[in-house]
Design brief:
Blueprint: E1 10-14, H1 17-31, E2 39-43, H2 46-51, H3 55-67, E3 69-72, H4 80-85, H5 95-103, E4 106-111, E5 128-132, E6 142-146, E7 150-157, E8 163-172, E9 176-180, H6 185-202, E10 205-210, H7 218-241, E11 245-249, H8 250-259, E12 264-268, H9 270-284, E13 290-295, E14 301-305, H10 311-318, H11 328-345, H12 348-366, E15 369-370, H13 372-375, E16 384-385, H14 388-403
Parallel strand pairs: 1-2, 1-3, 3-14, 5-12, 10-11, 10-12, 15-16
Antiparallel strand pairs: 4-5, 4-13, 6-9, 7-8, 13-14
The chain binds NADP nicotinamide-adenine-dinucleotide phosphate and magnesium ion (MG).
Length: 404
């Protein structure tokens, strides 16, 4: 068989633990036999990040800026316990956070759907993609406990040293709490553009929600920036694509989402996105079936699984015990990236291969072959739990059939 040719390399970011093991099998068994795979490889596994003082993470983000498309394996975000486990020089920051900041990107999370795994919400028929603004608000807030009676004020001093704003927040007559949070027009605009762009790319309507009736300056600014950018840059493109931009209050959005059929993107402020993405992914079934893509406003894409490195399974694997780790989201990260590369480089065979690999995955599940995490959710009759490697080989058998 002639392998599918690639012209531009994909930025490949390897990772840690169980997902690193799955990563290698996916490449060896499901991709390299069919595709003349061209990647620029960055090892974001924790030992290499430690060895390079995390330079490798920055290099990989710059490579995505250069080539436009990356695929990333799950990685460990170190904590105290990892410091001793890996004998680290420093508690390195989350690679995802670093890459997101460097690309100024927005994360979109969407579930992989299959008829035999029914969402908890009966009306949902199509995926709901959540876009979370991962910058500012309470995640970068300054806060403290107010210890006694007194006046709390909000003050702004400009760079010339002139105080241009002072307002009382509250005259405390007893102890309490106080918080100051911020966001930036530039970050909100990047968030808006990434969402409008992704909506066009995926031909799905975009919903956006805040609490602008209560927060007349803060949340209202989000609403205004979205509307200005939409009117100036995207209105006509949305009309041509037959999709819409829809703004509503966050509480109205929650009610509408639950009654909807799905099939749209829901853009959320930072906190709303944090909470709602866990609600939506749980209601769709399993974290192991959740995909994630980071999109920058200037059109760079990084695909990954939403779950972590599945540490508990990895420790079993190290003890020689059998594991049944679900590779679906990691495979779909690869197919998302290969498909995007094919689109950008105009290689239809590559897009076609990505679709066939996804079909092979779905076909394998429909045969009742799956990993342990899905067996209890399965409503399609007999379901057999396979181990990690056997499930991947079952997908390969179906892929061979589809490719033949
Ligand atoms: P996790 O790796 O997502 O795993 C949590 C649990 O969810 C697992 O123990 C497993 O449950 C289940 N699970 C998740 N993915 C699965 C899969 N593919 N197949 C089957 N079951 C799956 O989260 P974590 O244990 O909290 O974090 C582990 C490491 O991952 C941490 O070091 C964290 O820093 C990192 N992390 C990385 C990313 C990323 O790179 N994007 C995201 C999150 C976490 P059972 O054990 O019950 O089977
Ligand atoms: Mg959360």
């Amino acid at each position: 068989m002639v392998k599918i040719r690639m012209t531009t390399p994909l930025v490949e970011m390897d990772g840690d633990e169980m997902t690193r093991i799955i990563w290698q099998i996916i490449k060896d068994e499901l991709i390299i036999p069919y595709v003349d795979l061209k990647t620029e490889y960055y090892d974001l596994g924790l030992p290499e990040r430690d060895k390079t003082n995390d330079q490798v993470t920055k290099d990989s983000a710059n490579a995505i800026k250069k080539y436009g498309v990356g695929v990333k394996c799950a990685t460990i975000t170190p904590n105290q316990q990892r410091m001793s486990e890996y004998n680290l020089h420093e508690m390195w920051k989350s690679p995802n956070g670093t890459i997101r900041a460097m690309l100024d990107g927005t994360v979109f999370r969407a579930p992989i759907l299959i008829d035999e795994i029914k969402p908890v919400v009966r009306t949902w028929k199509k995926p709901i993609t959540i876009a979370r603004h991962a910058y500012g608000d309470i995640y970068k807030a300054t806060e403290f406990r107010v210890p006694e009676e007194g006046k709390a004020e909000l003050v702004f001093t400009n760079n010339e040293g002139k105080e241009t704003f002072r307002e009382t927040v509250y005259d405390f007559e007893c102890p309490g709490v106080l918080q100051g949070s911020y966001n930036k027009d530039t970050s909100i605009a990047s968030f808006a553009r990434a969402c409008f762009q992704y909506a066009l790319d995926t031909k799905q309507s975009l919903w956006f929600s805040t609490k602008d009736t209560i927060s007349k300056k803060y949340d209202h600014t989000f609403k205004d920036i979205y509307q200005e950018i939409f009117d100036a840059e995207y209105k006509t493109k949305f009309e041509e694509a037959g999709i819409e931009y829809f703004y509503t209050l966050i509480d109205d959005a929650v009610a509408r989402v639950v009654r909807s059929e799905g099939g749209f993107i829901w853009a959320c402020k930072n906190y709303d996105g944090d909470v709602m993405s866990d609600m939506v992914s749980t209601a769709f079934g399993s974290l192991a079936m959740m995909t994630s893509v980071l999109v920058s406003p200037d059109g760079n894409y990084e695909y990954e699984a939403a779950h972590g490195t599945v540490t508990r399974h990895y420790y079993k694997h190290l003890k020689g015990e059998e594991t049944s780790t679900n590779p679906m989201a990691t495979i779909f990260a690869w197919t998302g990236a290969l498909n995007k590369r094919g689109e950008l480089d105009n290689i239809p065979e590559l897009c076609d291969f990505a679709k066939k690999l996804e079909q092979a995955c779905i076909a394998t599940l429909k045969e009742g072959k799956m990993t342990k995490d899905l067996v209890n959710l399965w409503e399609g009759g007999n379901a057999t739990a396979l181990n990690t490697k056997d499930f991947l080989l079952a997908i390969k058998a179906n892929l061979d059939k589809i490719m033949a």
